[in-house]
């Protein structure tokens, strides 16, 4: 048993956590409720909102990629169009339409569904490359339209509105970030539960069958095209909800909500988290948002780290972060998870040293190349030094080399421990 | 999974609090692209801000009896969404002054968000120092009390530019081309309207918009411009769209002057190089060549010593810092932004780059001298991009558009 | 009329440049079933390598060395990256190349910064070859045409006259059979990937001075390359050539001829609402052909895929 996910796309609804029980959902709800008491600054709330939106979006994307086997390069279209429509709705609310803000995501979802219905009618006829390329083409077309059709999309500056203009709900006008957080969290739960339940329905399960073997599904009497179309519409619906939540949080939608960069990054998020598991996209969305928002405060070359992380994930852990966690389910069930603690702890030190020193090498080289002349002073991990001197570079290179050596030396021990932990039987099985 | 979530949020919050504010400096958030395709402009701007803060304020004893300015960079990846997130992070760090300039789209998002934030959170209001976004709407229909623009807007620049063109009797036909979005459209509308009023005999032989950032090869556009027989062309293009258009037009045989808004610095001067010599003209504030004074010359030399590959291609950044410092001194506080804003309104200030400055109180648009500058390597004391080429002042419209009308109807706190 | 001839020539330059990228990409796809998302990134690497070399020794050495360097990097990536991912299936492979594209862009920024680089055409070619009604045709563009044509002829020769080429051609049509015949398929894969990326690198070397050498250059061209080979038909070299030229000309002519929706609508008997900025149809009335020029290839691709999923000249379905 090496990796459980040698073909990461073959198990869309595998479970890391028993989601068909109520307990995980209740725990999640309680966590979502408590979080603002732990992190109460507005920026933390904004980042958590951003995470929640990305989670809904990534989960809806995984309905296509993970559960339906459809690779889309234009999923931002459905989130964006849902969001744009909601922004117009908000402006109509400001003009006098009666609509409580918490209901807005329903309409965003319906609008996303409507467009998924239209575009899916021709794009889902085939799977594979044809579907991927049509999604790319449609994505590019809609993004280009957003600059041309100014009356709906507002051109390059987008359209904005004010979320506080609707009727108050329970005394909330949704001005403060905290109120918006609870609204977003509520919809996160609803949407996640909805998507989970969808995957349990017969139509959701048939989507897996079509993904794995189109012909067999046809023989069983399911039109593969209709199944794909249904998944596509369901996915469009939840993407539209994510768009509505975006409209509520940021009160502005622009071309970037539709373009290929956004579509590409949700692919990245989903794959990073792991397409084979329901919770994969959730983990991916959290990690990605943190990397993008927090890491970029500390280093200019955050996108380089992100690229390395992503490529390394595809190469070494195609099951994504969730796949990595799932590998430990077996040792857990065998009651041998404890056997891994010591080898992991041993490995942790050189691994951490290697990552930090390798990053330091990059940072020093980058500083040397791009900082202003005479700006030799550099601060890394709280240490200030001269980036142009040879010593710092030699030091971190030496640390990197030593830690790499240690990793190589420790690897067989870890592998033995792993084999032991994943096999039944006694200590020396 | 939960533990992962917890761990990650723990990391996030550690991150957010580790940079928490210290009260001994006055912080200015610089929210502009520091990664991605427009990063060179953003990084250049950041260097100018950091240098200006040191040279104008910190090395002269700071403000309010010794408080220094500190520029805190935030990378918005030129995305409105990221800008709004970074704005929240900046506000949470106790920052009260937000500087941004690249892209009117982002500026629109920020000015809107800041107005909403200030009305929802009266206790920690912030000011928006817009140093480069020139969409006229920002000081007209979309103006608000918290927004101050230190660059001349697109209409003001076109007003000055057409004044100069109107005096050139050799120009009979003009081609107007720009990027297909709000700013490109504003430039085109202003060009057509103002030329029609000042020189009705000039024929607009072409007026078109091309998709922004999507044109790989400008040759077909260049062909059209040459074939139209235009004597001169006007463009508001920036970034790689400017380089591509400028090079293609010159390469394919266009002979006349090319009037631009943004054809200098950030690698553009070096990329255009010899081919655009004496041809590319630029309407901008702030005179670099010849230096207006020994002080300006010394300032530029000091900057070059620090950033030999860099340029002072946005001299107005020094005005932002200088005027903000003066306003904070005048208000006697850096925490009450309403008092600082009231000081900025109507402020007169002498720029180190040789112009009188006046912040119009009715729309918060800075009024200043506008210069037509030419791209050349002759008489260039300070070149751009280390290329030997730079811009030299040709003519000046002083206090351009002092009385230009505004539709701004500002609500004051 | 003279403008028309100039446009034909300009479109030819664009189309042939596109073909230099598409030919490599379609070879890689046909052999390995991988849509290489990072293909345009190798094009960018070619331009940057050539720029770096030109700083020391001028343009011509870069013309030779840069594509080889790019090809070697491509082959190494195939050997140590793509081959590893191959066993997981095609989607992870595609996602791998997608990540690679991001990584290469970041790496380029890491080394060369974010500004446009002053990579220039050689001075020997810096003159006007000829002139048509005031429009000059730079000698460098003639040079580009010759290089692209030369590459096409060499490729054609290798594919039709040499043993290696026969194997590749056979693999284009019958990948499984060739494998069963005992050819060293992994070695062929690595070779094809290396050569394909080297051709993209060569395209970058000669396009860099004209289209600009900056970190966004790959992204700007990336998806259009896909669109071209999909329209032409995946796996068809002739299809790639024809689609490249077609798109080159579409883009050139769409940018040149200012067909306005206003004229079309008026001739159809509609009256323009006044004032136009108050009308719900303002965007339709002010639409022009140059505005939508860059998205025409995408529109064409969607239509082609819906009507004929194997592309214009493709034989087997994707």
TrEMBL record, chain A:
Metal-binding as UniProt keyword: no
UniProt keyword list: Cell membrane, Membrane, Transmembrane, Transmembrane helix
Keyword check for Transmembrane: yes
Stretches of the chain forming a coiled coil according to its record: none
InterPro entries: ABC_transp_permease, LivM-like
Transmembrane region(s): 22-39, 45-64, 76-93, 99-119, 131-155, 180-198, 229-248, 268-291, 303-327, 347-366, 387-408
Membrane association type: Multi-pass membrane protein
Gene Ontology molecular functions: branched-chain amino acid transmembrane transporter activity
Highest taxon of the lineage: Bacteria
Major location (coarse): membrane
A Gene Ontology cellular-component term: plasma membrane
Compartments where located: Cell membrane
Designated name of the protein: Branched-chain amino acid ABC transporter permease
From TrEMBL, chain B:
SUPFAM superfamilies reported in the protein's UniProt record: Periplasmic binding protein-like I
Record key words, sorted: Amino-acid transport, Signal, Transport
Gene3D superfamilies: 3.40.50.2300
GO BP field: amino acid transport
InterPro entries cross-referenced by the UniProt entry: BCAA_transport (IPR051010), Leu-bd (IPR028081), Peripla_BP_I (IPR028082)
Domain Leucine-binding protein residue range list: 25-373
Signal peptide limits: 1-23
The keyword Signal belongs to this UniProt entry's keyword annotation: yes
Membership in a protein family: Belongs to the leucine-binding protein family.
Protein name, per record: Branched-chain amino acid ABC transporter substrate-binding protein
Lineage of the species this protein comes from: Bacteria, Pseudomonadati, Pseudomonadota, Alphaproteobacteria, Rhodobacterales
Automatic annotation (TrEMBL), chain C:
Transmembrane segments: 12-35, 55-77, 139-159, 187-211, 218-251, 284-307
Membrane topology: Multi-pass membrane protein
MF GO annotations: transmembrane transporter activity
Pfam families given in the database record: BPD_transp_2
Keyword Transmembrane: yes
GO biological process: amino acid transport
This protein's UniProt keywords: Amino-acid transport, Cell membrane, Membrane, Transmembrane, Transmembrane helix, Transport
Protein name (Swiss-Prot/TrEMBL): Branched-chain amino acid ABC transporter permease
Organism of this sequence: Marimonas arenosa
């Amino acid at each position: 048993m090496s990796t459980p996910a040698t073909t990461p796309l073959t198990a869309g609804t595998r479970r890391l956590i028993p989601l068909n029980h109520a307990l995980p959902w209740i725990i999640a709800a309680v966590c979502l409720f408590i979080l603002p008491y732990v992190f109460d600054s507005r920026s933390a709330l904004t980042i958590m909102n951003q995470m929640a939106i990305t989670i809904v979006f990534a989960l809806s994307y995984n309905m296509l990629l993970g559960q339906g086997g459809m690779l889309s390069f234009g999923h931002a279209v459905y989130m964006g169009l849902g969001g744009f429509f909601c922004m117009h709705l908000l402006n109509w609310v400001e003009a006098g339409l009666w609509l409580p803000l918490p209901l807005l995501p329903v309409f965003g979802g319906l609008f996303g569904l409507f467009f998924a219905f239209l575009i899916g009618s021709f794009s889902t006829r085939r799977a594979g490359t044809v579907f991927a390329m049509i999604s790319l083409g449609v994505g590019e077309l809609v993004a280009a339209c957003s600059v041309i059709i100014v009356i709906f999309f507002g051109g390059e500056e987008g359209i904005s509105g004010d979320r506080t203009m609707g009727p108050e709900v329970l005394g909330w006008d949704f001005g403060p970030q905290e109120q918006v957080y609870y609204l977003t969290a509520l919809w996160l739960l609803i949407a996640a539960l909805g998507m989970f339940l969808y995957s349990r329905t017969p139509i959701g399960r048939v989507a897996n069958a079509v993904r794995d073997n189109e012909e067999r599904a046809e023989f069983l009497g399911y039109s593969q095209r209709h199944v794909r179309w249904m998944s596509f519409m369901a996915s469009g619906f939840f993407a539209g909800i994510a768009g509505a939540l975006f409209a509520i949080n940021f009160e502005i939608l622009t071309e970037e909500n539709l373009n290929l960069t956004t579509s590409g990054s949700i692919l990245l998020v989903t794959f990073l988290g792991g397409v084979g598991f329901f919770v994969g996209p959730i983990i991916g969305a959290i990690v990605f948002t943190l990397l993008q928002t927090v890491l970029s405060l500390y280093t200019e070359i955050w996108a380089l780290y992100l690229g390395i992380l992503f490529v390394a994930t595809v190469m070494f852990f195609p099951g994504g972060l969730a796949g990595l966690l799932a590998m430990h389910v077996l040792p857990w069930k065998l009651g041998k998870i404890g056997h891994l603690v010591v080898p992991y702890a041993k490995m942790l030190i050189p691994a951490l040293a290697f990552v930090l020193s390798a990053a330091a090498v990059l940072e020093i080289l980058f500083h040397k190349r791009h900082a202003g002349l005479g700006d030799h002073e550099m601060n890394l991990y709280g240490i200030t030094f001269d980036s142009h001197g040879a010593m710092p570079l030699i030091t971190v290179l030496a640390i990197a080399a030593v830690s790499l050596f240690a990793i190589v030396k420790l690897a067989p021990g870890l592998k033995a421990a792993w084999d032991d932990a994943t096999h039944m039987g006694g200590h020396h099985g | 999974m939960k533990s992962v979530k917890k761990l990650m949020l723990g990391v996030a919050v550690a991150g957010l609090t580790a940079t928490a504010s210290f009260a001994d400096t006055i912080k200015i958030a610089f929210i502009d692209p520091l990664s991605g395709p427009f990063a060179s402009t953003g990084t250049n701007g950041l260097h100018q801000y950091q240098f200006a803060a040191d040279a104008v304020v910190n090395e002269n004893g700071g403000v309010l009896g010794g408080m220094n300015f500190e520029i805190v960079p935030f990378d918005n990846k030129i995305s409105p969404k990221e800008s709004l997130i970074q704005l929240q992070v900046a506000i949470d760090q106790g920052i009260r002054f937000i500087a941004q300039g690249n892209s009117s789209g982002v500026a629109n998002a920020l000015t809107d968000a800041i107005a909403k934030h200030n009305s929802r959170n009266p206790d920690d209001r912030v000011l928006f120092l817009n140093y480069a976004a020139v969409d006229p709407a920002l000081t007209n229909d979309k103006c608000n009390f918290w927004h101050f623009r230190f660059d001349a807007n697109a209409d003001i620049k076109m007003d000055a530019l057409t004044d100069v063109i109107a005096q050139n009797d050799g120009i009979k036909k003009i081609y107007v081309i720009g990027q297909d979005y709000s700013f490109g459209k504003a430039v085109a509308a202003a060009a057509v309207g103002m030329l029609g009023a000042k020189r009705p005999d000039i024929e607009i032989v072409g007026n078109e918009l091309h998709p922004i950032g999507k044109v790989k090869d400008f040759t077909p556009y260049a062909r059209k411009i040459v074939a139209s027989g235009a004597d001169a062309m006007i463009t508001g293009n920036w970034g790689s769209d400017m380089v591509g258009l400028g090079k293609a037009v010159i390469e394919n045989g266009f002979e006349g002057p090319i009037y631009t808004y943004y054809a200098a610095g950030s690698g553009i001067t070096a990329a255009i190089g010899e081919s655009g010599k004496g041809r590319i003209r630029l309407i901008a504030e702030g005179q670099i060549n010849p230096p207006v004074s020994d002080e300006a010359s010394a300032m530029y030399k000091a900057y070059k010593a620090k950033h030999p590959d860099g340029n002072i291609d946005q001299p107005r950044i020094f005005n932002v810092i200088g005027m903000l410092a003066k306003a904070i001194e005048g208000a006697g506080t850096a925490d009450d932004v309403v008092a600082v804003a009231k000081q900025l309104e109507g402020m007169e200030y002498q720029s180190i780059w040789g112009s009188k400055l006046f912040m119009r109180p009715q729309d918060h648009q800075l009024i200043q001298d506008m210069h037509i500058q030419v791209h050349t390597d002759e008489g260039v004391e300070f070149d751009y991009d280390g290329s030997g080429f730079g811009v030299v002042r040709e003519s000046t419209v002083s206090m351009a558009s002092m009385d230009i009308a505004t539709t701004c109807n500002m609500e004051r706190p | 009329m003279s403008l028309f001839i100039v446009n034909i020539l300009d479109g030819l330059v664009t189309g042939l440049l596109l073909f230099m990228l598409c030919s490599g990409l379609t070879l890689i796809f046909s052999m390995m079933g991988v849509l290489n998302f990072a293909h345009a990134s190798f094009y960018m690497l070619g331009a940057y390598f050539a720029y770096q070399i030109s700083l020391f020794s001028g343009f011509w050495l870069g013309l030779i060395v840069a594509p080889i360097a790019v090809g070697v990097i491509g082959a190494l990536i195939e050997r140590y990256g793509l081959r590893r991912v191959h066993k997981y299936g095609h989607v992870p492979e595609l996602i791998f190349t997608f990540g690679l594209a991001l990584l290469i862009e970041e790496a380029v920024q890491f080394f060369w910064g974010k500004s446009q680089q002053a990579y220039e055409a050689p001075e020997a070619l810096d003159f006007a070859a000829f002139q048509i009604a005031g429009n000059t045709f730079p000698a460098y563009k003639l040079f580009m045409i010759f290089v692209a044509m030369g590459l096409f002829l060499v490729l054609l020769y290798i594919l039709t006259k040499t043993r290696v080429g026969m194997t590749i051609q056979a693999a284009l049509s019958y990948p499984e059979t060739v494998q069963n015949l005992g050819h060293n398929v992994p070695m062929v894969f690595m070779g094809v990937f290396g050569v394909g990326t080297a051709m993209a690198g060569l395209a970058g070397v000669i396009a860099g001075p004209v289209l600009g050498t900056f970190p966004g250059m790959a992204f700007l061209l990336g998806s259009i390359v896909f669109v071209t080979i999909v329209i032409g038909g995946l796996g068809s070299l002739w299809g790639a050539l024809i689609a490249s030229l077609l798109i080159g000309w579409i883009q050139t002519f769409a940018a040149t001829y200012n067909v306005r929706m206003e004229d079309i609508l008026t001739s159809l008997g509609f009256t323009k609402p006044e004032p136009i900025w108050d009308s719900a149809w303002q965007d339709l009335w002010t639409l022009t052909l140059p505005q939508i020029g860059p998205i025409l290839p995408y529109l064409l691709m969607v239509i082609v895929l819906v009507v004929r999923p194997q592309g214009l000249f493709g034989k087997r379905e994707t």
